[in-house]
Amino acid sequence: MISNPDLVIVGGGSAGMAAALEAKKRGIENILILETDPYLGGVLRQCIHTGFGLRTFSEDLSGPEYAARYIERIESEGIRYLLNTPVLEVRPDLTVIAISKEEGYLELHPKASIAATGCRERGAGTIAIPGTRPAGVLTAGTAQRYVNIEGYRPGKRVVILGSGDIGLIMARRLTLEGAKVLCVAELMPKSGGLKRNIVQCLEDFDIPLLLSTTVVEIHGKDRVTAVTLASVDENRTPILEKAWRVECDTLLLSVGLVPETELFSDAGAAVERGNGLTVDDHLMSTIPGLFGCGNAVKVHDLVDNVSLQGEKAGGFAAEYILGGK
Amino acid sequence: METKHITCTVCPRGCAITATKDGDVITVEGASCDRGRAYAKEEMTCPKRMLTTTCKVSPALSEKMKLLPVRSAAPVPKALLFDIMEVCREVTVEKKVSIGDTVIPNVLDTGVDIIAAAAL
Hints:
The structure holds two protein chains of two kinds.
Chain A: E1 7-10, H1 14-25, E2 31-34, E3 50-52, E4 61-62, H2 63-76, E5 80-82, E6 87-90, E7 96-100, E8 104-108, E9 112-115, E10 119-121, E11 137-139, H3 140-150, E12 157-161, H4 165-176, E13 180-185, H5 195-202, E14 209-210, E15 213-219, E16 226-231, E17 244-247, E18 250-253, E19 257-259, H6 262-265, E20 290-292, H7 303-322
Chain B: E1 2-7, E2 16-22, E3 25-29, H1 34-45, E4 48-49, E5 52-57, E6 67-72, E7 76-77, H2 81-89, E8 92-93, E9 102-104, E10 114-116
Parallel strand pairs in B: 5-8
Antiparallel strand pairs in B: 1-2, 2-3, 4-7, 5-6, 6-10, 9-10
């Protein structure tokens, strides 16, 4: 049985683990991390590329290595966590309802909670591309999971829409795995990805980055057979007269990330326009005792900054609990 | 004389470097640190990259993890990336490893080991 924790952390990724470690350091003994996946570390597990930890550890680590550093500390500090445990509901009085594979139905009444739920990818449904909906249209993160964890290659001839970092990373990954990445199309006149990713993931492999370009149609009945690309004008309106068709079997979408905050907004917590949890300068949401950190508050470019904010939230939550407010 | 515009990838800052090679003399402009200068010089002679990929895990060893993330212990010549991928593709991990353990020693005689990036 789970004794009622003082602090519940929703999400066992980089933000949640950093928050837990800092809260423990500040004297909070009874902490519980709830993680919906069967492992700690969140998305880092599938981010097998390097570039993590340059600021935190002054080392160039891969995602699994970065996560392992925190997981080891969670274990050695004896911080309690439950895997395979989705949180179903958070209430304004901080009651947390979760279903655990081990513990069954849980109703927890912590003194404080931390939202460390990360973010999700925008999918095909959110960007309204005309055409059919065949197999072979998937988000870059899903493709990353297929390739790096499940061991499937999602396609042979790939067009990537959006030049976010996951899309760039997957352009390289799929190329190394033997797929032909035909191009990366970016609606905006400038890529939102990190410079080093544009160099190491696209330029290194001569993959064209087509700026001010978008997909205007998807072709194919059962499987993608082609997409139609078009340049866009300064108002981001496609110039259809100059559209061209590219034969491919896969369209990857790397079109942005959305903070995962519905659990908390359903409880009445305010969220920003981009769906990030609204927090004050103590990282507390509009619900007293509910704190937020990491990509649930704002989508970060670097995991090091996520860990840093997690740490701060853990500290503020500890102060809140110890202050008896 | 050969001039190359290089975006530095040592850190996320991404300095725009101009490197010029005149015979054996390489001059570097635009780098903010020594690591950046060293990187630009290497780009002009033998560009190197970190390689990260996965190796198959024997089903007898782990049912949960089908793939082990691995990486080069140091950057490897860019020209060899695809050849090293071929080597990694042929390897099946048969025994337990910890982070940093060598999976493929001295891959293709580069002097660089392929190491485990996760524990099994």
